[in-house]
Amino acid sequence: MMGDAMDYEEWKFGERNEGTTYALHSFFRKLAQGVGPSLGIILATFLGYNAVLGPDQPMDVALNMRYLTAAMYLLGALLQVLSYGVIYNLDKKTLAEMEHDLKERHAAKG
Question: How far apart are CA 21 and CA 66, in angstroms?
Fold first, then answer.
């Protein structure tokens, strides 16, 4: 997918910025890996989780934690559908057209 995204950028804007694209991808992946667990801890605390109690949480907290787990999976799935459907909306026809155009450009440059 990264290669297709870089080809798309070159196709649309005439420049290929592989270094910038990979650097931004790496930065945001690491940012998400740092923020994600923190967000989970904040949400668990908001739902009443008490770290001092360990596994002996009240039943309503345990139930809320199960709902939180399901909600996080649902949110992740919705974000993926939106990302692939709206942001990364390259279908086979567009990819074929893009490949053809880029080959022509590269051949013309020699």
Answer: 37
